[in-house]
């Protein structure tokens, strides 16, 4: 344990009792829009946990739903420290921790699963019925310190920054959505609907698989369009141009092979059914605040496939670390804003107003 940190800790004989000056955290405390920055005790780790000093933590689209307290998050635990995309340095280890030591740089998976159900046994802990998520069910990473089960950890390779490492989790989600869920081949035409961070990561992955990619957004997405263009991705403002006309023009009237709905806007799903070709594939990854009406007769007569995709599998994390380390996926280009924990409202305002790309807290 680092000397400076150890000087701030007092232990009693039966357990670890932290008397550190209060730990700062961004929390959801009430069932209403907004967040609160509070001082809370440093977490006491369990025998199978490590204590991580958080070096970077990123705001996810789900955090925006939590901020607004939309119906999709109305049953979350309150109060709770938010955030599930984070990286940092181990400052303490529990008695049963194996293979990790103080001082190591790590990131964490976001899902704590049961490891016993049928989905967990086949490596799909993202679908575990008993799972909990950091920042929703248990305290997350928008804080100076966080306690994490050591079996969820992944080491940072040499040369990877903490800012990059905090973006491994969302890239892992995108990798699952694209690689595991969405069938496509070289030369296929893919429309990514939504140019937020997940859309921009997924568009890069489709390009990596030699697909032709068009990413869409609204007039408010000016900054994100510029990011996409710097990444070599064709963009389209659907408030200024017809998406259906552009798709039909680029596909000789057939329609796209794949529509990838990376936004929780009901009209986007309907639009996806209108732009894909017969027997086309639609992957939906957005989280929606209300039901989505669809013309099922149109879907039936065109034999369209609509599939949902959620979270990431454990194997997606080392894969994503490799993609970032090798330079095959650029996550830093999507990162536009950095804030302290005290600036939580300003950070969320940038994310909510879409005036930036990815937003991170640097505690």
Count of β-strands:
20
Residue-averaged pLDDT, rounded?
93
Percent range for β-strand residues: 25-35%
Overall tally of structural domains: 2
The dominant shape is globular
Could you give the distance between the termini? 19 Å
Radius of gyration: 21 Å
Give a short account of the largest sheet: 7 strands, mixed
Output the structural class. Answer: alpha/beta
CATH fourth-tier homologous superfamily of the largest domain: Medium-chain alcohol dehydrogenases, catalytic domain
* Number of separate helices: 12
CATH topology descriptor of the largest domain = Quinone Oxidoreductase, Chain A, domain 1
Low-confidence stretches: 1-19
The quaternary state of the protein chains shown equals single chain
Q: How does CATH name the architecture of the largest domain?
A: Alpha-Beta Complex
List keywords for this structure.
363 residues; alpha/beta; Quinone Oxidoreductase, Chain A, domain 1; Rossmann fold; 2 domains; 7-stranded mixed beta sheet; 6-stranded parallel beta sheet; 12 helices; 20 strands; 28% helix; 26% strand; globular
In brief:
Helices cover 28% and strands 26% of the residues. The protein has 363 residues and is α/β, with parallel strands linked by helices. It has 2 domains: 3-171 and 312-361, Medium-chain alcohol dehydrogenases, catalytic domain (Quinone Oxidoreductase, Chain A, domain 1), CATH 3.90.180.10; 183-308, Rossmann fold (3-Layer(aba) Sandwich), CATH 3.40.50.720.
């Amino acid at each position: 344990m680092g000397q400076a940190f150890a000087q701030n800790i007092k232990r009693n004989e039966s357990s670890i009792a932290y008397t550190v000056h209060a730990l700062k955290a961004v929390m959801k405390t009430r069932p209403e829009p907004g967040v609160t920055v509070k001082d809370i005790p440093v977490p006491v780790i369990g025998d199978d946990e490590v204590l991580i000093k958080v070096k970077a933590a990123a705001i996810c689209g789900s955090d925006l739903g939590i901020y607004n307290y939309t119906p999709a998050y109305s049953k979350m635990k309150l109060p709770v420290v938010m955030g599930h995309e984070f990286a940092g340095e181990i400052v303490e280890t529990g008695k049963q921790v194996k293979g990790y030591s103080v001082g190591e740089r790590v990131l964490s998976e976001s899902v704590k699963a049961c490891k016993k159900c049928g989905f967990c046994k086949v490596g799909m802990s993202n679908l575990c019925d008993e799972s909990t998520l950091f920042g929703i069910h248990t305290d997350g990473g928008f804080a100076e310190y966080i306690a994490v089960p050591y079996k969820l950890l992944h080491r940072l390779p040499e040369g990877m920054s903490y800012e990059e490492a905090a973006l491994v989790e969302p890239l892992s989600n995108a990798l699952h959505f694209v690689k595991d869920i969405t069938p496509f081949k070289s030369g296929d035409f893919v429309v990514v609907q939504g140019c937020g961070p997940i859309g921009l990561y997924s568009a890069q992955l489709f390009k990596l698989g030699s697909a032709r990619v068009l990413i869409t957004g609204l007039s408010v997405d000016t900054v994100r369009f510029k990011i996409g263009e710097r990444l070599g991705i064709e963009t389209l403002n659907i408030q200024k141009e017809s998406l259906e006309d552009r798709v039909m023009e680029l596909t000789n009237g057939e329609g796209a092979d794949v529509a990838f709905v990376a936004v929780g806007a009901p009209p986007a799903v309907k639009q996806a059914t209108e732009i894909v070709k017969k027997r086309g594939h639609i992957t939906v990854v957005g989280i929606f605040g209300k039901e989505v009406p669809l013309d099922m007769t149109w879907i039936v007569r065109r034999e369209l496939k609509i599939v949902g995709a959620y979270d990431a599998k454990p194997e997606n994390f080392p894969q994503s670390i490799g993609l970032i380390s090798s330079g095959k996926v650029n996550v830093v280009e999507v990162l536009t804003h950095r804030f302290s924990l005290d600036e939580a409202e300003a950070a969320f305002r940038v994310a909510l107003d879409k005036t930036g790309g990815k937003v991170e807290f640097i505690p």
